[in-house]
Amino acid sequence: MAYVIAEPCIGVKDKSCVAVCPVDCIHGTDEDEMLYIQPDECIDCGACVPECPVSAIFPLDQVPPQWQSYIQKNADYFKK
Predict the structure, then answer these.
(1) Phi/psi at 5 (nearest 5 deg)?
(2) Report field, pTM of the whole predicted structure over 0.70
(3) Residue ranges of domains in the chain
(4) In terms of CATH architecture, what is 3-77?
(5) What is the residue-level pLDDT of the chain in tens, covering all 80 positions?
(6) What is the rounded CA–CA span in Å between residue 12 and residue 76?
């Protein structure tokens, strides 16, 4: 199970979560509207969760119903 970044990250992209990720699985360019977690690289450590200032990071099985589409958006980002 990986973690997922959801809608609250849009327009914020605070990279404090990137700094604490031990496997560097959080990505995003300046042109992207938000950051994304590479689901195949995430080791489910949860280090990123408390660092997110907008509470946008959730375990896969706890993504709120209104943001379920972000599970696929995170995965699709890495299919480019």
Answers:
(1) -100, 130
(2) yes
(3) 3-77
(4) 2-Layer Sandwich (3.30)
(5) 799 999 999 999 999 999 999 999 999 999 999 999 999 999 999 999 999 999 999 999 999 999 999 999 999 999 87
(6) 20
